[in-house]
Amino acid sequence: MSVEEGDRLLKAGIERYQNNEFEAALDAWEQAGEIYQKVGDRAREGAAVGNCGAVYQALGRLHEAIAAYERHRAIADEIADRTGHLNALFNLSNTHAALGDFERAIACQQQRLAIARQLGDRRLECSVLSELQRHYTTSGNPSQARACQRDRAYIARELFDLSPNRDFQNFCTELGLDLRRDFAGANLSGLDLDDADFANANLQGTCLSRCSLQLANFCGADLSDADLVDTLAINANFNRANLQRAHLRRADLRTNLSGANLQQACLEGANLTAAYLQGANLSEANLSGASLKNADLKGSNLTGANLTAVDLTRAELNEATVSKTRFVAAIGLSPEVENQLRDRGAIVESERPESE
Question: Pfam families this protein is in (predicted)?
């Protein structure tokens, strides 16, 4: 009886487990565990016991799995095996969750979180927060789940800023984060997000100021209350995106905004030259000082919008709703077009009032 014999059985158990021969794997690992115990190799004994727990779990014998994982944890604690302790807690958490005992599942992950923070291991912390977020979501605790999501997004940005990797989308994938789901309210300012896929993403309140968003896809995304000040979004796709109350001052939006909801958005000084805004909702939006040269606003809703000092040279305004829209000192409007706009309910003034 030797460590080598135990190792042979441990390896055999792995092969049988991978072939779904669970009973045979269990037999091999139990024998390996007994050998390691007799020769005094507690680390290997703990690993074998933990493997037995995995078999019990695969067989649906969850209470036996918990007993095995608890034994693994006890051995790991006895020999100060931190990795074994973390693994045992992870397995215990998942097994308790499978039994619907989310209180214990969460408690196990919280212990892992404390260890990760004690070690200063931010990647591990991010991984544990992902597990906690999942358990909180499944157990009906959305506020706790959102707190975990916010912490994960914060850590991801912190780690990215310290990383030589310049592909944020790829970096997030490595951390198990989804750009479309996990960054609502996060700080993504100044990042290069060209070509990123944010289709149908939840980016409510997200800070994207000074980002490069060229060719990025925001089709159907929720960007309400988001900060996109000074962003470069040439040829991005904002079709049907929700940009209600978004901050878009000085943003370069020479792009597709058809059907977008820009109600009450701030677009002061934005570059919307040749932008495609068919059917967009710009009601009560502030477009003062923006460039809409050659923009297509056909069928858009400009009700109550502020277009002070806007360049509308060759802009298409047919079928646009302009009730109470303020065209003050607008550039590029002929007297004939100004009269047509007045007839449609717009407020057209050739010069700014002195107070402005």
Answer: Pentapeptide, TPR_12
